[in-house]
Here is the input.
Amino acid sequence: MSPSGSSSSAQSSSGDHTGLAIPGPWKPTAYLRPSSRRARRHRTDALWVPVSCVEHGRWDGARSGEAFAPAPQTAYPELRHLKNRQARVAVEQNLEPRASQGDVWDEVAHKSERMATHSQTGAMHDIYDGRREQLAAFRDAVRLRDGQAGALVCIGGEAAVIDYVSRPDAFAALHGPLLQGYALDALEADAKDAADPAVAQTFFDAALGARVSQRDGARSVGRGARGRRAQLCAAPCPATSRRGS
Here is the structure.
């Protein structure tokens, strides 16, 4: 993994690994880090990023020799909302900021069912593969702008997510995969006119004004040096979101 923003999902065939450890200073390598407390204490020179598996059948052990590769998409916003909510609750309970793996698999399964996708291993990737032609239409319509470092996304006329990183070159690498996720959720949304700019502005103002506790700052992997934000992802609260997420 490099600072240019390239990313991939990682899973383990044994269940012993629950995140990515990225060694400093941002060398172009990534490796799985054991979840034991002892291992975490001794790896203080690495950035520890909790991850979730998005292919239920990947854990059967038969594919343990396969190499991992970057995916052409990120998780879709609806799944990211679920993970964010659960991670926030975990932090409030002084636990590691991660979502329930079972809930992640359930969400992917429900998405697959709604979109009439068959996957022998319950893979999120197969949902995308079944809609590549439709997703390509979004890719062609939504172009990266010069100097762009983030996006505020409205789906079905309502605010869905804000993604921001501190460097335009990093966002340029993320733009395509993120757009695939935005588009996948948009395929399920009711057809509506473009969102009212006031809706986007209200969401943007709320995100900027959101309270960040000391605990959030201490446990966030997106917080840069001297407290400067290196990465931001914001979503509507349950009371205002389109699917309660």
